[in-house]
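Changelog note: in this version the structure field was regenerated for every chain. One regenerated record is shown below for reference.
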Amino acid sequence: MEKKVVSVSYNMKKGVLDDDYTLFSDGTVLHKYDKHIYPGGANIEETLIGKDLKLEIKMKLYESAESDKKGLVKSLLNIPDN
């Protein structure tokens, strides 16, 4: 099965540091971020799964999703109904 992008949340920390999350159809999440502006601290990537994410990040991905994909995002990330 081909992995497709379901939702993307673009954020910035301290106004200059990337903190982006991309949710894929297989439930994996690619986290691209910068730790700091010095060499070796930028463009870091890690692959996570929904249970590794804080509710705040899950909600950002939910809110960023197109309306026809919100149900899928809730399902993939196990977001509670309330």
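Spot check on this record: The chain has a mean pLDDT of 92. Strands lie at 5-9, 12-13, 17-24, 28-33, 44-49.
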